[in-house]
Amino acid sequence: MADDGSGGDISIPSFLMFRHDADKIKDEVKANRPVQVEMAWALPNPDDRVEYDLWSVPGDQVTKDFFKHFKTVAKALGDRAYFTPHMYIHDGVRSHCQGNDGENWCYTLCTNNGRYCATDPDNDLDEGVSGADVVKESLRRLCIWSKYGATDGIGEKFWDYVSEFIDRCGENDYFADDACIKDVYKHAKIDGKEIDGCMTDSGGTDTDQSNAKLDMEISLQSQRGVVVMPTAFVNNAVIRGMLSVNAMFMAICAGYSEGSSPDVCQQCAGCNDVPGCIDAGYCKSTGATPSAEGVSTHTFATSMLFIVALFSGLGVWHYKRTKEEMRDQVRGILAEYMPLEDNDLNGGSVGSHPMAFAGGNQTTSFLS
User: Fold this and answer.
1) Which string of DSSP letters, residue by residue, matches 260-307?
2) List of residues 6+ apart from 61 with CB closer than 8 A
3) In which order are the strands placed within the sheet that holds 116-117?
4) Which of 165, 228, 257, 363 is deepest in the core (most CB within 10 A)?
5) Which class for 366: exposed (0-12), middle (13-18), buried (19 or more C-beta within 10 A)?
6) 202 shares its domain with 317
């Protein structure tokens, strides 16, 4: 678990409780009565719609696969789930990247004269992608979501943009290239002028003033206690562990109240390829782990009967063919070495049959 700086006095393992619950337990212990406490993990599931959030950073390698493949899941969940993307921004003022005289002391790591900062992805302050580039791309994605995803909570064009950006501009040479960004706008069908206008109206990244959208992200991440990237929330409960499409899908499906989960949750529950299951309408075999839902019982039984009948037919045919071949061989041997008629010995010439020398009183010389 992540330490937000206040965990110095906590030893592991520890169990934290609300005081009104702890007081009841202490009363029982003082009365010398046995106490049994159960600890269980469960997601809040208040209703038939799930809200989920993801805190990430542009250029992060861990989230690439998720952003490229989760669009299928988001569409399948439809209005039964509401997604909100967040960008992790370092507070430059709190980190003392903005001096008392207003000078940016962190150079290429920050925008807005040291107000908003990000770590350098390639650890090179002079070349490649800078922290300021990451902040600018973060603001761009916030504006894209505000324009194309905030209304329905699905944001198809947001997913398209991020996927296209990863494929076309994810490398250092093109991360902040204006021509590459315009190309991504075109393929994701994004109105670049509106997005650029949103970025400017919120405060921009090239001015010595605050940005409303970036300030909001800094405030929210402080309220949520976000310190590790990436971090996902489902119904305001943090999701620990490796971020993957399957893990997020399972967490979302667990967040519905009992009996209210959408059909796709039952259809693809436990499947090791959720996007493939959604596209096909059933869980297919993937890799070396076949899915139990891929073949129905009727199809399996019919296939087995067909295979048994096929091999039985082949066995009968092979037996008959082998029997006929053996019979023909025996007939050939008898025709070559055994007399077929009595007159072969009595009426024929002495040397006309291979066994003629054995019949009668005739003698035959074997020497010439």
Assistant:
1) ---HHHHHSTT-S-HHHHHHHTS---BTTB--TTSS-HHHHHHHHHHH
2) none
3) 90-91, 116-117, 110-111
4) 165
5) exposed
6) no
Q: Compute the C-alpha angle 241/52/45, nearest 5°.
A: 95
Classify residue 168: in a domain, yes or no: yes
> Are residues 234 and 322 part of one domain?
no
Distance (Å, whole) CA 171 – CA 324? 73
Render pLDDT for 101-134 as a digit per residue (tens, 0 to 9).
778 889 899 999 999 999 998 888 888 899 999 9
- Per residue in 157-178, pLDDT tens? 999 999 999 999 988 889 999 9
DSSP 208-245: SS--HHHHHHHHHHHHHT--SSSEEEETTEEEPS---H
Residue 349 has pLDDT above 60, yes or no: no
Task: Give the whole-number percent of the chain exceeding pLDDT 70.
Answer: 84
The residue with tokens 């002495």 is 350
339: confidence class by pLDDT, cuts 50, 70, 90: low
> In the listed set 202, 235, 257, which residue is the last one of a domain according to the structure?
257
231 Cα distance to chain centroid:
17
Do 251 and 317 share a structural domain? Answer: no
Q: Are 112 and 208 in contact (CB under 8 A)?
A: yes
Query: Are 80 and 176 found together in one domain?
Result: yes
Measured in degrees and rounded to the nearest 5, phi and psi for residue 233 equal: -125, 140
Separate counts of helices (H) and strands (E) for the chain: 13, 7
The CATH number that applies at residue 61 is: 3.40.30.10
5 C-beta neighbours (distance < 10 Å), count: 8
Q: Do 246 and 317 share a domain, yes or no?
A: no
Query: Do 200 and 75 sit in the same domain of this protein?
Result: yes
Per-residue pLDDT at 213: 97
Residue 276 tokens, joined: 């493939």
Q: In angstroms, what CA-CA distances link 193 with 101, 177, 352? A: 35, 16, 111
Q: Number of folded domains in the chain?
A: 2
**CA atoms of 241 and 226, how far apart (whole Å):** 14
State the Cα–Cα distance between residues 65 and 5, nearest whole angstrom. Answer: 31
At residue 98, φ and ψ (nearest 5 deg) are -110, 115
